[in-house]
Amino acid sequence: MDELTLSVVGIDFPNADRSKSNRRMELLVCAPGEPVELRRESKNPHDANAVAVFSARGVQVGYVSAERAPLIGRRMQQEEHAVVFQALVGSMGYVRIRFGGGVPALPDLVEGELAARSRGRAAPFDPDAFYPDPEGPEWGA
């Protein structure tokens, strides 16, 4: 079992659906820990390794970064996995994936932010306090 944080890119592009749904707006209504779905798009004309990210309401919110998509797509085919929304920070969305069963654990920063919001307060934003998982050879790309 292992977990990692994935960046969600393309959040400011409109979706191709009839309503031109807004990806950023959908991310704003996602709650930390809410399930999200990853879908491989092998017929994507720009990237055959593309992995799209969809909210629990079925609205596309972006894509897994091109650097991570080949590895994530392969592992999704081979292993049981679960994915949850982690955070929206500036122009990037983040999801947390866990391979091998179980639900991904959110980093403490997100859980602390969630606790502050449940008390009706916004947690102070500290851009230096949010660190996605470090690059490592075990995750490839």
Report on the structure:
The chain is of the alpha+beta class. The relative contact order is 0.22. The model has no long low-confidence stretch (mean pLDDT 83). It has one domain (2-124): Alpha-Beta Plaits. It has helices spanning 23-29, 69-78, 108-118, and strands spanning 2-9, 37-40, 51-54, 60-64, 81-89, 92-99. It has a six-stranded antiparallel beta sheet. The longest helix is centred in the last third of the chain and has 11 residues, at 108-118. Residues 117-141 are annotated as: Disordered. It comes from Sphingomonas albertensis. Residues 122-133 have a biased composition (Low complexity). It holds the Pfam family HIRAN. Residues 30-79 form the HIRAN domain.
Give the tags.
six-stranded antiparallel sheet, 20% helix, single chain, alpha+beta, 6 strands, 141 residues, Alpha-Beta Plaits
Topology:
Blueprint: E1 2-9, H1 23-29, E2 37-40, E3 51-54, E4 60-64, H2 69-78, E5 81-89, E6 92-99, H3 108-118
Antiparallel strand pairs: 1-4, 1-6, 2-3, 3-4, 5-6
